[in-house]
Amino acid sequence: MAGTAHREPARPDLAVSIWRGDAGGAYADYRVPQRANQTVLDIVTFVQREIDPGLSYRFSCRVGMCGSCAMTVNGRPRWTCRTHVSKVAKNGRLTIGPLANLPVIKDLATDMAPFFQKWQAAKGVFSPSKTRHDAIEPIKPSSPERVAADAGVECINCGVCYAACDTVAWNADYLGPAALNRAWTLVNDVRDTGGKERLRAVSAAGGCHACHTHQSCQQHCPATLNPTASIAGLKRATVQAWLKGEIEP
């Protein structure tokens, strides 16, 4: 009939289980209306705004730029703002928890301090060779060093690879994929002066040689990076540095 407004067909509600409390908490069940083009972050936001205002979680940009909304969805770490419910819900059910391998502060919010402490332990800070008063050093985009650095430089430290890493799960000293990937980008930055110290750091216990090359980080990275390849590069670089006597075994 002309003039009749189009209405979306009714959809069954989603059965959603969300982790509540700290590490000793439990999952709580909710019923959430199902919508077209709905993301997992939309689900969490609905629960917090309409059902349970005490729910704690992190988010910021909502467009896959900051990584702060990462959570475990049906057993897999993901950016919830870029994950559509229609692609991950199983039989109309979602289970949403905090990232694994990190302390739980409350509900879906984890303490990222251990993650960034390992990033620092891997010497993931740029050590400049020039000051702001020096001329800008030209870097050829096609140089092997720049190509190697560019392959991993887009990491935004969301923690998804850290949560997915099997080695992190059983080795508390392991630096993790993101920290080692950052170290690799700096090892290949010709403007950086911290190379030898960085190689010593990543070759120590819990460093790159602790990686078992399961490639969980590569499989789960939302930015389609391959930290395993970066770690393999560090393994080669540390062995070469040892053979030259630059680092101790």
Molecular structure report:
The protein contains ten helices and seven strands. With 249 residues, the chain is of the alpha+beta class. The radius of gyration is 22 Å and the shape is elongated. It starts with 13 loop residues before the first strand and ends in a 6-residue tail after the last helix.
Please specify the SSE layout and strand pairing.
Elements: E1 14-20, E2 26-32, H1 40-51, E3 70-73, E4 76-79, H2 85-88, E5 93-97, E6 104-106, E7 109-110, H3 113-121, H4 144-150, H5 160-164, H6 166-170, H7 177-187, H8 195-203, H9 216-220, H10 227-243
Parallel strand pairs: 1-5
Antiparallel strand pairs: 1-2, 3-4, 3-5, 6-7
Helix pairs in contact: 3-7, 7-8, 7-10, 8-10
Q: Number of helix segments?
A: 10
Query: N-to-C SSE series?
Result: EEHEEHEEEHHHHHHHH
* Class computed from helices, strands and strand pairing: alpha+beta
Give the overall shape, derived from the CA principal axes.
Answer: elongated
The percent range for strand residues is 5-15%
Major sheet details = 5 strands, mixed
The level 1 CATH classification of the largest domain is: Mainly Alpha
> Architecture of the largest domain, according to CATH?
Orthogonal Bundle
CATH homologous superfamily caption of the largest domain: Alpha-helical ferredoxin
- The total count of strands amounts to 7
Taking the alpha carbons of the first and last residues, their distance comes to: 80 Å
- CATH topology tier name of the largest domain: Fumarate Reductase Iron-sulfur Protein, Chain B, domain 2
Tally of separate domains: 2
Uncertain segments are none
Give the radius of gyration: 22 Å
Mean pLDDT: 94
Strand order of the largest sheet: 2-1-5-3-4
- Percent helix range: 25-40%
